[in-house]
Write a structure and sequence with these properties.
By secondary structure, this protein is α/β, with parallel strands linked by helices. It has nine helices and 14 strands. The chain folds into two domains: 146 residues, HAD superfamily/HAD-like (Rossmann fold, 3-Layer(aba) Sandwich); 112 residues, 2-Layer Sandwich (Hypothetical Protein, Haloacid Dehalogenase-like Hydrolase, Chain: A, domain 2), CATH 3.30.1240. The longest helix is centred in the N-terminal third of the chain and has 13 residues.
């Protein structure tokens, strides 16, 4: 089984090279299963990203997992923790949206921030990414009462680690790698959830083992996936901790690196 991170691995700024689409099709034709494994919510995994044909999706960085159309897990913040999280976001004036399987819910300030960011100079290179996010977004009057698996913050009055600490140990934070989003931008997620958790649900459901898994990724939220996988594939230029544990290093999507990596791994 091959689990592919999307952004920076399978796609570049949301755009998938034709060679990657063809490579996935060939791998599946050869009898291997291929799934997307992403930090994106399931609603932000667009039909365009699925065009190659996939056996399933692990989304929300492991909170959600499906295989052959069967949903194996769809974990959300417990209600009391969700209330505490939304209150903390308000305390620190965090411009935020919350991610569920069905939609990305945003207050008006986050809606405006997304619009501004998507039209900012240079955003044309990320047009496909912003198209997916905007299509999945719903503007609401309050975030209270919503069911969600993860929180994305675009800015705040303090560092995201401070907000996470105010919420409690059940929640962890990862700061954004996008410089132009500024202070307090990143993601809040359930501490015990990772891509490896979502992958394990699929692997155990099929009666397989980690040795049967090839994980491919480039970012810090891919580390647990690569540690779990029998074969870890990192993307050149990715996070140093990813490259440190990679068994194989593939070129990025700008160079359609997965096509060559799949060949080297004997999948095609």
């Amino acid at each position: 089984m091959v689990f592919l991170d999307i952004d920076g691995t399978y796609a570049s700024h949301g755009s998938v090279p034709d060679a990657h689409v063809e490579a996935v099709r060939q791998v599946r034709e050869n009898g291997h299963r291929v799934l997307l494994c992403t930090g994106r919510a399931r609603c932000a995994v667009s039909s365009r990203l699925l065009d190659a044909g996939f056996d399933g999706v692990v989304a929300s960085a492991g909170a959600y997992a499906e295989i052959d159309g069967l949903v194996l897990r769809d974990e959300v913040f417990p209600a009391a923790l969700a209330r505490r999280t939304i209150d903390a976001l308000a305390t620190y004036n965090a411009v935020s949206l919350v991610e569920s399987t069905a939609a990305l819910y945003a207050l008006s300030d986050a809606h405006e921030a997304i619009e501004e960011r998507s039209h900012r100079h240079g955003a044309a290179a990320q047009a496909a990414l912003w198209e997916d996010l905007r299509a999945a977004r719903i503007v609401v009057d309050t975030l209270h009462g919503l069911s969600f698996a993860k929180v994305v913050t675009l800015s705040a009055d303090t560092d995201l680690s401070v907000i996470a600490a105010a919420i409690g140990p059940e929640v962890a934070a990862v700061e954004t790698s996008l410089r132009d989003l500024g202070r307090g931008a990143g993601e809040l997620y359930l501490t015990h959830v990772s891509k490896a958790v979502g992958i394990a649900a699929v692997v155990e459901h099929l009666g397989l083992t980690p040795a049967d898994v090839i994980g491919v990724g480039d970012g810090p939220n891919d580390i647990e996936m690569l540690e779990y996988a029998g074969t870890a594939v990192g993307i050149a230029g990715g996070h140093p901790d990813v490259l440190a544990i990679a068994d194989v290093v593939a070129e990025g999507p700008e160079s359609a690196g997965l096509a060559a990596a799949f060949a080297d791994l004997g999948l095609v």
